[in-house]
Design goal:
Blueprint: E1 2-6, E2 9-12, E3 17-24, E4 32-38, E5 45-51, E6 56-58, E7 66-71, E8 76-81, E9 90-97, E10 113-114, E11 118-123
Parallel strand pairs: 2-11
Antiparallel strand pairs: 1-3, 3-8, 4-5, 4-9, 5-6, 7-8, 9-10, 9-11
């Protein structure tokens, strides 16, 4: 299984970016998909998750600004990021898991495969 992120880049505060993550090498739709991020000098944190039934979760820091969505037919995950802030600067990782029944709410234990990450830089 391979996860490939795209859509990162540099924007000014208040701008928007849309990240995409394409999952290949599997015929089975991931039960749980999510976005995580890691800022310099900080631990990786969950940003948003999406369960196959449509259940989604968001970190408090991005609620109301970020929207996670997925196209199950294409095994593709998206993250629409609006009103970006400098503190959103990080490497963003896509992750996927196939464990049926997983809570799928930001715990890395629910995710088996990870992408290599895409850099998002927000300047003030």
């Amino acid at each position: 299984v391979q996860l490939v992120e795209s859509g990162g880049g540099s924007v000014q505060a208040g701008g928007s970016l849309r990240l995409s993550c394409s999952a290949s090498g599997t015929a089975y739709r991931p039960y749980c998909m999510g976005w995580f991020r890691q800022a310099p000098g900080k631990e990786r944190e969950g940003v948003a998750t999406s369960k196959i039934d449509g259940y989604t979760t968001y970190a408090d820091s991005v609620k109301g600004r970020f929207t996670i969505s997925r196209d199950n037919a294409k095994n593709t995950l998206y993250l629409q990021m609006n009103s970006l802030k400098p503190e959103d600067t990080a490497i963003y990782y896509c992750a996927a898991g196939w464990r049926t029944g997983a809570y799928c709410a930001g715990s890395e234990a629910d995710f088996l495969y990870w992408g290599r990450g895409t850099q998002v830089t927000v300047s003030s």
